[in-house]
Amino acid sequence: MTQRRITDDLHALLDVLPPHIRQAVVKANDSDNLLEIVMDLGRVPVARFVQGEVVLDQNEITREDIDHVVNKIGEFDADNRAGLERTLHRISAIRNRHGHIVGLTCRVGRAVYGTIDIIQDLLESGKSILLLGRPGIGKTTMLRESARILAEKHRVIIVDTSNEIGGDGDVPHPAVGRARRMQVAQPSLQHEVMIEAVENHNPEVIIIDEIGRELEALAARTIAERGVQLVATAHGRTLENLLLNPTLSDLIGGIESVTLSDEEARRRGTQKTVLERRSPPTFDVLIEIQERDRMHVHKDVAAAVDSLVRGYPLPPEIRYRDENGEIHIETPPAQAAPRPLPQTSRRTYANGSETQPFNRKGGRSLPTGAERVSEEMLLPSEMNAQPSAPLQTIRIYAYGVARNRLAQAAKRLGVPALVVQNLDEADVLMTLRTYYRSRQQPVVEAEERRMPIYVLRANTINQMEQSLAELYNLSVESNSTEWEIIAAQTQVAIQNVLNGQRFVDLPPAPASVRRMQHEMARAQQLVSHSYGKEPHRRVRIFRD
Hints:
The protein is an alpha/beta fold and 544 residues long. It folds into four domains: 5-111, Beta-Lactamase (2-Layer Sandwich), CATH 3.30.450; 114-328, 3-Layer(aba) Sandwich (Rossmann fold); 394-472, Rossmann fold, CATH 3.40.50.2300; 477-542, 2-Layer Sandwich (Ribosomal Protein S8, Chain: A, domain 1), CATH 3.30.1370.50. It is 30% helix and 24% strand. The chain has 17 helices and 27 strands. The strands form six sheets. Strands 11-10-12-13-9-16-17-18-19 form a nine-stranded mixed sheet, sandwiched between helices. A six-stranded antiparallel sheet has the order 4-3-2-7-6-5, with helices on one face. The two termini are 52 Å apart. Residues 332-367 are annotated as: Disordered. This is AAA family ATPase.
């Protein structure tokens, strides 16, 4: 096991702080766990540690305290970040509407040697690796150590947008070893520097911190297709987060809705409209950093995405370091391919099972003896082999669901569904997600009676048809899944803008989809405009 060694040059950061704050940090006597020092005008200074926060001084920060730090560190870049030369510390500024600095976040930068051994075998395999994790969990530290290790045997270029990897100044920090570093004049030009690094400097490995824009994702794909190994970080915590991010989903292949042939849909046992991975992923391996010494590893991103969109996600490999510094790897057991979950409206039952306790003949439930098997649990080939039976009437109590639309959906499908007036007469309860989550009285009563509950995401005929198709085990074509994915992608884009991203461009879409995206943006008090010409016209979401 590699011995861990930490260098943080903390004295250099303390020297730029006002004397009373510097003394308070020293007095706290926990420099090894210090993450950052926060100084906001009119508030008390706070030191943030790995475990909790400490108020450094009861006196509020004044304009003189802010100016004391600013005068010692010089100018801030376009991204409101500054550093200390030959160190890894980063000082970020918060400005008011007039451009004056009213807050500072002084983050401690550390070079931690010996942390990368937990994934060193993946680094040395030559595969492109993407790191995900929440802020402050150590992504950049691992990226810096990766650059040092790889540079011992390969030509490594670091695209250092905010100087967090190689430190401030013209000379890179010794922590990056023999790796070369290219600085970026403005964050918006990161993608151009990425391409320039490949074209001009003949690298074998490129290290990138924080891929966050669509142009950067496209540049990463271009680099990967030229045979260069990529090691990068991106916004997000899990594979699912990244898949629903419209800006970055291309890093892992992206998803799209496709229509299968009748034969293929029958073979898979799914509907004709399903989700598929759009293209090969840019990165071969994805690592979710759960904690500083615990990671979930998806060693085959393509297989992980394929399984996720089909409804049976593959468990990741778990790697962690125990208290004694020993590394443990838990490999998931080989899994038999289960039956894909239907990509339709949600079903739930009192027993918490996805197996429908209800058969085609309209019976309220099935016997539980071992000699009887629910028809819904049979494989598609076994179901096709059974003789078809006439559909029997099923009584549905619609709570919060438009009954006239439900009757219309049943008529369109040609199924004998009867909408009843009270729960006592019903075989099935159908309701909306809002009512189900708020635990309305009919929902509670249905669960007590172990009655199947069908939960709709929206009060639309399309959703009702999906539920009725599941209820009668029918196969219908529908684009509801595609709309749900588009809505989820739009919501992620909105959240990214609310979290501080300048803007997000959504994928090209028809007018009906763009109308929905504009409405979702307006509901969150954001601005959205459409750009481009058909069929490539798209929506951009940003703050006013």
